[in-house]
Amino acid sequence: MNCIVTAGPTYETMDNVRRLTNFSTGRLGIELANFLTAHGHAVTLLLGETATHAGEIKAQQVERFTTTADLSGKLKKISAESAESADAVFHAAAVSDFGFGKIWLRNAAGELAEVKSAKFSTRAGTLLAELVPTPKLITELRGWFPNAKLVGWKYEVDGDPAGVIQKAEDQLTDCDTDVCVANGPAYGSGFGLVSDVGHCTHLKDSGALFAALEKFIRK
Question: 146 and 77: one domain?
Protein backbone atom coordinates (compact mmCIF):
# COMPACT_ATOMS: atom_id res chain seq x y z
CA MET A 1 0.00 0.00 0.00
CA ASN A 2 1.09 3.59 -0.60
CA CYS A 3 1.57 5.36 2.73
CA ILE A 4 2.43 8.93 3.71
CA VAL A 5 3.91 9.58 7.15
CA THR A 6 4.53 13.06 8.56
CA ALA A 7 6.99 13.29 11.44
CA GLY A 8 8.95 15.80 13.50
CA PRO A 9 8.33 19.47 14.25
CA THR A 10 7.47 22.42 12.11
CA TYR A 11 8.86 25.82 13.09
CA GLU A 12 7.74 29.42 12.59
CA THR A 13 10.19 32.24 12.02
CA MET A 14 10.34 35.42 14.11
CA ASP A 15 13.13 36.99 12.07
CA ASN A 16 15.94 35.62 9.93
CA VAL A 17 17.81 34.16 12.92
CA ARG A 18 15.12 33.20 15.47
CA ARG A 19 12.21 30.78 15.38
CA LEU A 20 9.47 29.15 17.43
CA THR A 21 9.24 25.36 17.54
CA ASN A 22 8.60 22.45 19.92
CA PHE A 23 10.41 19.48 21.43
CA SER A 24 9.36 16.80 18.95
CA THR A 25 12.28 14.58 17.87
CA GLY A 26 10.49 12.84 14.99
CA ARG A 27 11.33 9.44 16.47
CA LEU A 28 7.83 7.96 16.58
CA GLY A 29 7.04 8.92 12.99
CA ILE A 30 10.39 7.70 11.70
CA GLU A 31 10.00 4.36 13.47
CA LEU A 32 6.45 4.01 12.14
CA ALA A 33 7.71 4.69 8.61
CA ASN A 34 10.43 2.07 9.10
CA PHE A 35 7.88 -0.47 10.36
CA LEU A 36 5.58 0.10 7.38
CA THR A 37 8.51 -0.16 4.97
CA ALA A 38 9.67 -3.42 6.56
CA HIS A 39 6.16 -4.82 6.07
CA GLY A 40 6.19 -4.20 2.34
CA HIS A 41 4.46 -0.83 2.04
CA ALA A 42 5.64 2.03 -0.17
CA VAL A 43 6.31 4.91 2.23
CA THR A 44 6.84 8.61 1.68
CA LEU A 45 8.19 10.21 4.86
CA LEU A 46 7.74 13.96 5.30
CA LEU A 47 10.22 14.81 8.05
CA GLY A 48 10.77 18.07 9.91
CA GLU A 49 14.10 19.69 9.09
CA THR A 50 14.82 20.14 12.80
CA ALA A 51 13.92 16.58 13.86
CA THR A 52 16.75 15.36 16.11
CA HIS A 53 16.22 11.59 16.08
CA ALA A 54 19.40 10.03 14.71
CA GLY A 55 18.05 6.56 13.97
CA GLU A 56 18.12 4.88 10.57
CA ILE A 57 15.49 5.97 8.04
CA LYS A 58 14.22 3.20 5.76
CA ALA A 59 11.38 4.90 3.91
CA GLN A 60 11.78 4.77 0.14
CA GLN A 61 11.18 8.51 -0.24
CA VAL A 62 12.06 11.23 2.27
CA GLU A 63 11.26 14.92 1.97
CA ARG A 64 12.15 17.55 4.55
CA PHE A 65 9.81 20.33 5.63
CA THR A 66 10.36 23.54 7.60
CA THR A 67 7.32 25.66 8.47
CA THR A 68 3.66 24.70 8.70
CA ALA A 69 3.11 26.36 5.34
CA ASP A 70 5.95 24.33 3.83
CA LEU A 71 4.50 21.03 5.13
CA SER A 72 1.08 22.08 3.84
CA GLY A 73 2.55 22.81 0.44
CA LYS A 74 4.26 19.43 0.23
CA LEU A 75 1.07 17.57 1.17
CA LYS A 76 -0.94 19.54 -1.37
CA LYS A 77 1.66 18.80 -4.05
CA ILE A 78 1.49 15.07 -3.34
CA SER A 79 -2.29 15.33 -3.44
CA ALA A 80 -2.26 17.10 -6.78
CA GLU A 81 0.13 14.55 -8.27
CA SER A 82 -1.22 11.31 -6.80
CA ALA A 83 -4.08 11.78 -4.31
CA GLU A 84 -5.92 8.74 -5.67
CA SER A 85 -2.91 6.47 -5.12
CA ALA A 86 -2.47 7.35 -1.42
CA ASP A 87 -3.92 4.49 0.61
CA ALA A 88 -3.08 5.81 4.09
CA VAL A 89 -1.85 9.04 5.67
CA PHE A 90 -0.32 8.99 9.16
CA HIS A 91 -0.16 12.58 10.42
CA ALA A 92 2.32 12.26 13.30
CA ALA A 93 4.08 15.59 12.73
CA ALA A 94 4.12 18.04 15.64
CA VAL A 95 2.78 21.09 13.85
CA SER A 96 3.39 24.39 15.63
CA ASP A 97 0.15 25.73 17.07
CA PHE A 98 1.32 29.34 16.81
CA GLY A 99 3.33 31.56 14.51
CA PHE A 100 4.47 35.15 14.93
CA GLY A 101 2.25 38.10 14.12
CA LYS A 102 3.28 41.67 14.92
CA ILE A 103 6.37 42.53 16.98
CA TRP A 104 6.56 45.60 19.20
CA LEU A 105 9.49 47.28 20.90
CA ARG A 106 9.05 48.82 24.35
CA ASN A 107 11.70 51.48 24.95
CA ALA A 108 13.09 52.71 28.26
CA ALA A 109 10.23 55.20 28.59
CA GLY A 110 7.67 52.40 28.30
CA GLU A 111 6.45 53.41 24.86
CA LEU A 112 5.47 50.70 22.34
CA ALA A 113 6.20 50.83 18.64
CA GLU A 114 5.69 48.12 16.04
CA VAL A 115 8.97 47.06 14.47
CA LYS A 116 9.99 45.00 11.46
CA SER A 117 13.49 43.75 10.93
CA ALA A 118 15.49 40.90 9.44
CA LYS A 119 17.13 40.62 12.86
CA PHE A 120 15.50 42.23 15.87
CA SER A 121 17.90 44.06 18.16
CA THR A 122 18.36 42.61 21.64
CA ARG A 123 19.80 45.87 22.94
CA ALA A 124 17.11 48.42 22.09
CA GLY A 125 14.55 47.45 24.73
CA THR A 126 11.94 44.79 25.43
CA LEU A 127 10.29 42.97 22.53
CA LEU A 128 6.63 41.94 22.70
CA ALA A 129 5.55 39.29 20.21
CA GLU A 130 2.03 38.51 19.03
CA LEU A 131 1.41 34.77 18.60
CA VAL A 132 -1.26 33.85 16.08
CA PRO A 133 -2.71 30.37 15.43
CA THR A 134 -1.32 28.41 12.51
CA PRO A 135 -3.63 26.50 10.14
CA LYS A 136 -4.73 23.05 11.38
CA LEU A 137 -3.44 20.80 8.64
CA ILE A 138 -5.35 17.79 9.88
CA THR A 139 -8.61 19.52 8.97
CA GLU A 140 -7.43 19.63 5.34
CA LEU A 141 -6.31 16.02 4.93
CA ARG A 142 -9.68 14.55 3.94
CA GLY A 143 -10.01 17.10 1.15
CA TRP A 144 -6.49 16.39 -0.09
CA PHE A 145 -6.70 12.60 0.23
CA PRO A 146 -10.41 11.73 -0.03
CA ASN A 147 -9.96 7.97 -0.41
CA ALA A 148 -7.11 7.38 2.04
CA LYS A 149 -7.35 6.00 5.54
CA LEU A 150 -6.41 8.92 7.78
CA VAL A 151 -4.63 8.50 11.12
CA GLY A 152 -4.33 11.52 13.41
CA TRP A 153 -2.63 12.09 16.76
CA LYS A 154 -3.76 13.71 19.99
CA TYR A 155 -0.81 14.37 22.31
CA GLU A 156 -1.79 16.01 25.58
CA VAL A 157 0.31 17.15 28.54
CA ASP A 158 -2.42 18.25 30.96
CA GLY A 159 -5.54 16.37 32.03
CA ASP A 160 -6.37 12.71 32.41
CA PRO A 161 -6.77 9.69 30.07
CA ALA A 162 -10.52 10.18 29.71
CA GLY A 163 -10.01 13.78 28.62
CA VAL A 164 -7.41 12.81 26.00
CA ILE A 165 -9.66 10.08 24.64
CA GLN A 166 -12.53 12.56 24.42
CA LYS A 167 -10.36 14.94 22.40
CA ALA A 168 -9.35 12.06 20.14
CA GLU A 169 -13.01 11.21 19.59
CA ASP A 170 -13.70 14.86 18.78
CA GLN A 171 -10.93 14.75 16.17
CA LEU A 172 -12.62 11.83 14.41
CA THR A 173 -15.79 13.90 14.05
CA ASP A 174 -14.29 17.33 13.43
CA CYS A 175 -11.53 16.28 11.02
CA ASP A 176 -13.07 13.17 9.43
CA THR A 177 -10.11 11.00 10.39
CA ASP A 178 -10.54 7.22 10.61
CA VAL A 179 -8.57 6.65 13.80
CA CYS A 180 -6.72 8.84 16.28
CA VAL A 181 -3.75 7.91 18.45
CA ALA A 182 -4.02 9.29 22.01
CA ASN A 183 -0.81 9.65 23.99
CA GLY A 184 1.33 11.98 26.10
CA PRO A 185 1.68 12.56 29.85
CA ALA A 186 -2.06 13.15 30.26
CA TYR A 187 -2.83 9.75 28.72
CA GLY A 188 -0.08 7.91 30.60
CA SER A 189 2.11 5.03 29.44
CA GLY A 190 1.41 3.45 26.10
CA PHE A 191 -1.09 4.60 23.49
CA GLY A 192 -4.83 4.66 22.98
CA LEU A 193 -6.08 3.81 19.49
CA VAL A 194 -9.44 5.53 19.17
CA SER A 195 -11.52 4.29 16.23
CA ASP A 196 -15.01 5.41 17.25
CA VAL A 197 -16.85 7.14 20.04
CA GLY A 198 -16.53 4.89 23.08
CA HIS A 199 -14.03 2.58 21.40
CA CYS A 200 -10.41 2.97 22.52
CA THR A 201 -7.89 0.11 22.38
CA HIS A 202 -4.98 0.48 24.79
CA LEU A 203 -1.58 -0.50 23.36
CA LYS A 204 1.32 -0.93 25.73
CA ASP A 205 4.15 0.38 23.54
CA SER A 206 5.09 1.70 20.11
CA GLY A 207 5.63 -1.79 18.70
CA ALA A 208 2.06 -2.75 19.55
CA LEU A 209 0.82 0.56 18.13
CA PHE A 210 2.62 0.09 14.82
CA ALA A 211 1.29 -3.47 14.46
CA ALA A 212 -2.26 -2.28 15.16
CA LEU A 213 -1.98 0.57 12.64
CA GLU A 214 -0.54 -1.70 9.97
CA LYS A 215 -3.37 -4.18 10.55
CA PHE A 216 -5.89 -1.34 10.32
CA ILE A 217 -4.78 -0.13 6.90
CA ARG A 218 -4.92 -3.68 5.50
CA LYS A 219 -8.63 -4.03 6.33
Answer: yes
DSSP 8-state code for residue 135:
P
| Number of other residues whose CB lies within 10 A of the CB of residue 54 | 10
Contact (CB, 8 A) for 22 and 9: yes
Identify the segments of the chain with pLDDT beneath 70: 83
Enclosing domain of residue 124? 100-131
What is the Cα–Cα distance from 130 to 115, expressed in whole angstroms?
A: 12
Directed axis angle between helix 27-38 and helix 206-218, to 10°? Answer: 50
pTM for the full model? 0.94
**Do 112 and 128 meet the contact criterion of CB atoms below 8 Å apart?**
yes
CATH number, domain of 172, equals 3.40.50.10300
Cβ atoms of residues 161 and 186 within 8 Å: yes
Q: Give me the half-sphere count of Cα atoms (radius 13 Å) on the Cβ side of residue 146.
A: 3
Among candidate residues 96, 95, 91, 94, the one with its CA nearest the CA of residue 5: 91
Q: Are strands 88-91 and 149-155 parallel, antiparallel or unpaired?
A: parallel
Q: What is the pLDDT of residues 15-25, one digit of tens each?
A: 999 999 999 99
Residue type, 55: G
